[in-house]
Amino acid sequence: MTDASTVADIVAVGEAMIEFNATRAEDPNTYVRGFGGDTSNMVIAAARLGARAGYVSRVGDDAFGRSLLSLWVGEGVDTRGVTTDGAAPTGVYFVTHGSAGHEFSYLRAGSAASRMEPSTLPEDVVRGASMLHVSGISQAISGSACDAVFAAIDMATAGGARIMYDPNLRLKLWSLPRASAVIRATAATCNYFLPSLDDIRVLSGAADPHAAITWCRGIGAPIVVLKCGGEGVYVSYDRRMERIAGHAVATVDATGAGDCFDGAFAARTIAGDDPISAARYANAAAALATTGFGAVAPLPRDAEVRELLERAG
Questions:
Q1: What is the pLDDT of residues 47-74, one digit of tens each?
Q2: pTM for this entry
Q3: Are strands 91-98 and 17-21 parallel, antiparallel or unpaired?
Q4: What is the CATH number of the domain that holds 174?
Q5: What is d(CA 144, CA 142) in angstroms, rounded to the nearest whole number?
Q6: Which residue from 35, 9, 42, 256 is spatially nearest to 134, judged by alpha carbons?
Q7: Where are the beta strands (DSSP E) in 50-122?
Q8: Rg of the chain on CA atoms, in Å
Q9: How many domains does one find in the chain?
């Protein structure tokens, strides 16, 4: 359990959800309950890898909200920034699997997390962080939540924190013009920009990783970590660019891999690693996160990540 006197080094702002995952191909109507939400996955990944992590969100006053709070406490995540909302539910999503990969269906309209706004932010938690993590999903779920993300960035920056941003583009949540405008504005405020290649292709029309990184740097992102799934990751900062190859693992579900990458990258950055070393570690952690079903259950521990890195040489 998290000691209330402990200051979280890494704080994320966003929406957590309950996950129902159709893990058995022979019985697609049977779902296993789990947990999700990109920023929640991220802070749990960071905590499992040894970082002091905290979360800022809202959950419903319902069984799902209580189970999320229990999850975070059990994972050692500081929950002082989580508020229970008696007037709105906890969000839910479903995952199905097919030849094209995993597909998501959401029940999140009007969720407790979507009712976040600048006035509900726990200023002491946000200002006390050494790193703040935010995502495009957190901005897309409502106008007030988007305002809360920008307010949190201002608070954390004023407190001396570094800002990490994953645009995590979801066009089911908002239009491309609005997403593009908000993502561009946010990227210019962050220290670390961690998009996927697929997201940047949609946002910019970039045809390859080099063009995608050029676009990211052009909108003001000083350090770009471009996630390319099983193909690995590209890291660009100052005048350096390096590609880190992917790992061959027995992948069954990539649901939370990008979130795991973000948490691992943040954990190693806080520990003192340079961006390339942090990305190399995070790349291995994300690969391991694809070897089990669900967004949270397969998130690895430090020993597992280091074992994979050692095997890979």
A1: 999 999 999 999 999 999 999 999 999 9
A2: 0.93
A3: parallel
A4: 3.40.1190.20
A5: 5
A6: 42
A7: 53-60, 78-85, 91-98, 101-107
A8: 18
A9: 1
